[in-house]
Predict the structure.
Amino acid sequence: MSIEILGRLFGAVERADLDAYLACFNEGAEYRAANYPPVYGHDAIREFAMKMAPYFEKVAHTVKDSWQIGETIVAEMELVYYRRDGKVITVPCVDIIQLENGKVKSLHAYLDAAPAFA
């Protein structure tokens, strides 16, 4: 698995296809977004996503640049949150993704998500 996993991950989010998103992760994967505590495993990642879903019609990713060094991918992007109240909020983000056996072992998303909820 290479940097192409970014397309699978972000495409699944943009289609709101949680099953396709989870299929990119190892069963015990670590997921950490913004200042939220990390969660581990498919069930916890699903629960986290389900808590966020009611706030947004759609979330889009605009990848500015990405790098892969061994099994680590770094992606610099903008996240565009389409809120259910019609507001559109864009925030910068950097994801650091560790791969293992072709799937995501850990994903850390570094962003300030507060504007998306304000």
Observations:
- The domain at 5-117 is CATH 3.10.450.50 (Nuclear Transport Factor 2; Chain: A,).
- The radius of gyration is 13 Å.
- The CA atoms of residues 73 and 112 lie 20 Å apart.
